[in-house]
Structure formats: C-alpha cells, structure tokens
C-alpha cells in the first residue's frame, strides 16, 4: 500500500461510524514503535487506535 505521506499510516480507512471494518489477510508488514512487526496496516491500526503505538517503518522490525 502506498501511504499519503511517507512515515504516516492513514487508519481512518479501517473505521466506519459505529463499527470497525474487518482487516484483510494480506501480508504487508509494518513496524511499530513497540518494535513489533504487524502483518499489515490494518492490524497495526487496531492497536494504534488504542493509543499504544506509532508507526516506525515499513517492513519488518
């Protein structure tokens, strides 16, 4: 996936008013500031929305 600005992840596409959109199962790793690798942007956004992590880099940590 291409991101609107390098170093940022747009998590708004994974939410609709009042509900969450299920994450796709494709592999496109993202590294979070917690040094964990997330399988894709959507999985990263689930935890990011809880205020626990931020984007560190594309790919594995």
What's the helix and strand layout?
Layout: E1 15-16, E2 19-20, E3 30-32, E4 37-38, H1 41-48, E5 55-58
Antiparallel strand pairs: 1-2, 3-4, 3-5
Quick take:
This protein has 61 residues and is α+β, with helices and mostly antiparallel strands. 13% of the residues lie in helices and 21% in strands.
Describe this structure in words.
With 61 residues, the protein is of the alpha+beta class. It has a domain at 23-58: Wheat Germ Agglutinin (Isolectin 2), domain 1 (2-Layer Sandwich). Helix content is 13%, strand content 21%. Mean pLDDT is 80; it is low at 1-5. The strands form 2 sheets. The protein has a 3-stranded antiparallel beta sheet. The protein contains 1 helix and 5 strands. The relative contact order is 0.26. The longest helix has 8 residues, at 41-48. It has one helix at 41-48, and strands spanning 15-16, 19-20, 30-32, 37-38, 55-58. Keywords: Disulfide bond, Secreted. One of its GO terms (cellular component) is extracellular region. It is found in: Secreted. It comes from Ursus americanus. This is Kazal-like domain-containing protein.
Mean pLDDT: 80
Q: How many distinct helices? A: 1
How much strand?
A: 15-25%
Predict the CATH topology of the domain at 23-58: Wheat Germ Agglutinin (Isolectin 2), domain 1
N→C terminal distance: 17 Å
Keywords:
Kazal-like domain-containing protein, three-stranded antiparallel sheet, alpha+beta, Kazal-type_SerProtInhib, secreted, 61 residues, Kazal_dom, two-stranded antiparallel sheet
């Amino acid at each position: 996936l291409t991101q609107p600005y390098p170093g940022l992840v747009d998590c708004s596409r994974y939410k609709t008013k009042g509900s969450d959109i299920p994450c796709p199962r494709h592999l496109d790793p993202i590294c979070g500031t917690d040094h964990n690798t997330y399988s894709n942007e959507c999985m990263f956004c689930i935890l990011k929305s809880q205020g626990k992590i931020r984007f560190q880099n594309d790919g594995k940590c």
